[in-house]
Amino acid sequence: MLYDSTVRDAAFAEGRPPADINQLLSWAQLQLHIGNGTRWKLISARQKMGRVLFEIDEDTPSGPRRLIGKFGDSGRATTLYRSLQLLRNAGFAPPSLYTVPEPVAFVVERGFVLQEKVPGTQALSLLLESLDESRSASRFAAEWLLHLHQSQASASADPVKPDGIDSLANELGSILKEESARIARIARAIRCELAQPSSASVPCHGDFHAMNLFIHDRLRVSGIDIDKFAAREPESDLGCFLGQTAGLGYLARGSFECTEAARRTFLEHYEARGRQPIIASRLGLHMAMIFIKNLHFELVLLKTGRMELAAPWLSAAAGAILEGNIHLRP
d(Cα 208, Cα 225) in Å, to the nearest integer? Predict the structure, then answer.
C-alpha cells in the first residue's frame, strides 16, 4: 500500500497492507533505540506470503535515506543479514559497480532485517525494453553473477535435493489431468538428472532473476533478496535466471520470444567470461524445475486459474530437461 502519494518509485505500492504496520514500526524504532531526533516516514508497505515488507525515509545528519524493512522467518532473515555483511566485506559495496544492499539492523527473534534500498531500475523492465536496452541489462546481469560466482565469499553447501518434486508433480497432475502423463515424465527426468553428479560449487544467490537485480545508470548494479545464499552449482543460478526471465516475459507479453535475445545475451556473456564450462544438462534441469515450481505456485498455491499457462510452461520444462532446448525455441 502506498502511504505517500508523492513517491514515484515506491517498492510496495501494490498488495494487501499490513494491519499492524504502525505497531511494527514503533517496535522496530524501540529495538533500534531510535528516538524523536530521527524521523521515519512510511512510504509503502504490504504483506506477502507471511512476511511484512515496508519502506521508509529516514532522516540522517547527511540527509534522508531510503530503507527497506522485512519481518519474516528468522532463519531466512539470519541468512539474509549475514550474507549481506559477508558480501559487502567481499567487495560487493560501493565504489564497486557490483553491489548488494547495505545491512542496517537485524533482530533475530522477529526475523527483522532493515537494509538500504538500492538505487536504480528493476532489471525486468529493462529486459522488456528495446533490443539494445535489453541486451545491455542482460550483460549487466551476467556480469553481476560472474562476480558472485568468482568471488571468495564463504558459503555453506546447500545441494539441490529431489525432495518435493513428486508432490509438486502430483498436485499439478490432479489439476491438469490431461497433462498428468507429461508432468510425470518431466518429474522422472528431473529426479534422474538430480541423481547425477553436480558441477563444482560456487557462491550462489539462490533466487537470481530480473526482479532481484537493480541497475542504476551504469554506475551501480545491485542484487537483492539474498536470503537463499549458499554454495551450489552455478547452473542453479543460471537456470533460475533463464527460466524466470522466460516465464516473466510470458506473463507480461504472452510469449517466450520477447525475452529470447536477452536470455541468449545473458548466457553468451556469462559463458564467454566464466571460468568453468556450463553443463547443459544441469542448466536444463534447473530451468525445468523453475517452470514446474512456478506453474505449481500459480495454479495450486495462488489458485489464479490461469490454465492457459499450463501447455506452454510444461512444453518449456519438457524441452529443457528432455531435449536440451535451453533457448525455448519451438
Answer: 9
Predicted confidence at residue 36, as pLDDT, reads: 56
Q: Is residue 286 part of a domain?
A: yes
The verdict on whether omega for the bond into residue 95 sits within 30 degrees of 0, i.e. cis, is yes
Residue 38 located in a structural domain: yes
- CATH label of the domain that carries residue 100: 3.30.200
CA distance 301 to 58: 36
Residue 56 lies in a domain: yes
Judgement on whether residues 239 and 103 belong to the same structural domain of the protein: no
Q: How far apart are CA 211 and CA 152, in angstroms?
A: 25
> How many domains are contained in the chain?
2
Do residues 94 and 222 touch, judged by C-beta distance below 8 A?
no
Query: For residue 200, which of 239, 234, 157, 155 has the smallest C-alpha distance?
Result: 234
pLDDT for the residue numbered 181: 97
Q: Is the dihedral of CA 62, 64, 66, 70 positive or negative?
A: positive
Pairing of strands 112-116, 213-216: unpaired
pLDDT tens digits for 256-270? 999 999 999 999 999
Using CA atoms, how far residue 67 sits from 27, 42, 142, 209, in Å, is 16, 10, 26, 22
| Nearest-angstrom CA–CA distance, 202 and 236 | 10
281 with 199, same domain: the answer is yes
pLDDT in tens, 176-197: 999 999 999 999 999 999 999 8
pLDDT for position 54: 96
